[in-house]
Amino acid sequence: MANSGDINVGSVIRFNGDLCRIEEYQHRTPGNLRAFYQARMRNLKNGKIVENRFRSGEAVEVVRVEFKQMQFIYPEGEFIVVMDNDTYEQIHISAILLGDSIKFLKEGMEIKVSFEGDEAILAEAPVFVELMITYAEPGVKGDTATNTLKPATMETGAVVNVPLFVNEGEKIKIDTRTNSYVERVK
Question: Could you give the C-alpha distances from 94 to 45, 50, 75, 99, 121, in angstroms and in order?
Answer without folding.
Answer: 11, 22, 10, 10, 9
